[in-house]
TrEMBL record, chain A:
Descriptive protein name: ABC-type multidrug transport system ATPase subunit
Keyword Protein transport: no
MF annotations from Gene Ontology: ATP binding; ATP hydrolysis activity
Parts forming coiled coils: none
Keyword line: ATP-binding, Nucleotide-binding, Transport
Residue ranges occupied by any ABC transporter domain in the UniProt entry: 4-223
TrEMBL record, chain B:
Keyword Transmembrane: yes
Protein name: ABC transporter
Keywords: Membrane, Transmembrane, Transmembrane helix
Ranges annotated as spanning the membrane: 7-31, 43-63, 84-108, 120-142, 149-169, 189-209
Organism from which the protein derives: Kribbella rubisoli
Length: 271, 218
């Protein structure tokens, strides 16, 4: 199902043309990554998707009632605590006070907000403020989730959590669109990648699905040199590999032959 | 809308940005109306002037208190910038109520006046009109319309001078004229109520103009 569609969209600020003839749609369950250089028009596309900006020409059609947005920088000088802010946002979204509070704590725990949920928003670091921005977007399951460079400023643990949250949100039927500069993050998260250059959509590529393999180390293997491995994430209990689905059997075989112990195997992104 | 209203009221309350205009209003009351023995309507004319300046400042403070990115999130969450703006104006009007009560009661408590229900009604209508015109100017000089705070302050000062000096651009000059005449409160009640109603219309128009200008900038 098509959740948002941009038809022949152009955007001008005065004489400056930011976007020209952009045709793009995001479907339910899809993870769309917008890539491109700074100032290429990625953020403008996202603002058009959520209705924060209006096209100078063309049209934007949205088939979503619950829309969530995470800006590139979430600055707040509010004296409200992170938990109180999320409670209010939850109530605005139609949740009861109790369920908004429970959901806020669940999300902040998962994103590991340092300093705790009672920290005033104005005292949060950039990364922690970004976690609050992410939490507000996921208080209620969105039908359209739009994130502008959501990984910026996040610590390594939160990187993984964010990827999991986005994958789960898409798996529950949401259309997810985000911008990101890291090729590795895009490869391991997006199901479709759109490149924007000087305000024009230049390339659209579909990505294969990925399988996540968590293992406890055995004999020494440099997985980053392994041709099938897309991403290597070391952690306390061992490492997690991202491998294109279909090629994971060979990776598992290599691991087992070298005495590695496989703890979990799961498909994290479906085609 | 109720949840958004509660959020904005709490956020404004904690921000304390309403304090400077409120304290200035109290100081103006103390300087301008304490120990006044003249007609109560004349004291209320001074309150109208103080109310206009302070509600302009208050409105700018309340509209600007939410950071731009935070406001973007609020707008997307609500699904309409008009609803967010209308609720923000409702918060501004709520904050004007205590000022209105102070403006009505302070001259009576500290001065020596003959108080009638009619004079109180006239004072309330006149100060409500001034508060709404102040909110109108504040809205049009907020960050949503004028991004640079220095230019916004100069524009607001010029707008306040203009509404005080020029008769036909707002109801303020007419309100001041009505309060300064020698007619009874009963005779002044109707024109002042009509002028307050006109102020409501101007504020509603300002909401739509601000929304249109703010949306155009995005």
């Amino acid at each position: 199902m098509e959740v948002v569609r941009l038809r022949k969209v152009s955007k001008r600020y005065g004489r400056r043309e930011i976007l020209a003839d952009v045709d793009l749609q995001v479907n339910a369950g899809e993870l769309l990554a917008l890539v491109g250089a700074n100032g290429s028009g990625k953020s403008t596309v996202l603002k058009l998707m959520v209705g924060l900006s209006r096209p100078s020409a063309g049209s934007v059609q949205r088939n979503a009632t619950v829309v969530s947005y995470v800006p590139d920088v979430f600055a707040s000088h509010d004296r409200l605590s992170a938990s109180a802010y999320l409670r209010h946002m939850g109530r605005i979204r139609g949740l009861s006070t109790r369920s908004a509070q429970a959901r806020a704590h669940e999300l902040l725990d998962r994103l590991a907000l340092s300093g705790g949920a009672d920290t005033p928003m104005r005292k949060l670091s950039k990364g922690n403020a970004q976690k609050v921005a992410l939490a507000q977007a996921l208080l209620r399951q969105p039908e359209l989730l739009v994130l502008d460079e959501p990984w910026a400023g996040l610590d390594a643990t939160a990187h993984t959590t964010l990827r999991e949250l986005l994958t789960e949100t898409a798996a529950q039927g949401a259309a997810v669109a985000f911008t990101e500069h890291s090729a590795q993050v895009v490869r391991s998260t997006a199901t479709r990648v759109c490149e924007i250059e000087h305000g024009r959509l230049t390339a659209i590529t579909h990505q294969t699905s990925l399988t996540e393999i968590s293992m406890v180390p055995g004999a020494n293997i440099d997985w980053s040199r392994h041709p099938d491995v897309v991403e290597v994430r070391p952690h306390e209990a061992g490492i997690t590999l991202m491998v294109p689905t279909g090629l994971h059997d060979a990776t598992l075989l290599t691991a087992l032959q070298h005495g590695w112990s496989v703890t979990t195997v799961r498909q994290v992104r479906s085609e | 809308m109720t949840a958004l209203y509660r959020y904005l009221v709490t956020s404004v309350l904690l921000s304390q940005r309403y304090l400077p205009p409120t304290l200035i209003f109290l100081a103006a009351m103390a300087v301008g109306t304490t120990s006044d023995n003249g007609p109560l309507q004349s004291s209320y004319a001074f309150c109208v002037l103080a109310m206009l300046v302070c509600t302009t400042w208050l409105t700018v403070s309340i509209v600007n208190h939410e950071d731009p990115t935070q406001r973007q999130i609020t707008v997307v969450t609500m699904g309409s910038s008009l609803r967010v703006l209308a609720t923000t104006v409702a918060v501004v009007v709520t904050w004007c109520v205590p000022l209105l009560i102070i403006g009505l009661v302070y001259p009576i408590v500290t001065g020596n006046h003959v108080v009638t229900a009619g004079t109180l009604a006239v004072g309330a209508a006149a100060q409500l009109g001034a508060a709404l015109i102040g909110a109108t100017i504040g809205l049009l000089c907020s960050r949503l319309v004028i991004r640079r705070i220095g230019i916004a302050m100069l524009t607001a000062a010029a707008a306040i001078l203009a509404v005080l000096l020029l008769r036909w651009i707002s109801p303020i000059r007419s309100i001041m004229t009505v309060l300064s005449n020698d007619k009874t409160a009963g005779a002044n009640a109707v024109p002042l109520t009509l002028l307050a109603a006109l102020s409501v219309v101007l504020l509603v128009a300002a909401v739509f103009v601000t929304k249109a200008l703010a949306d155009r900038k995005e």
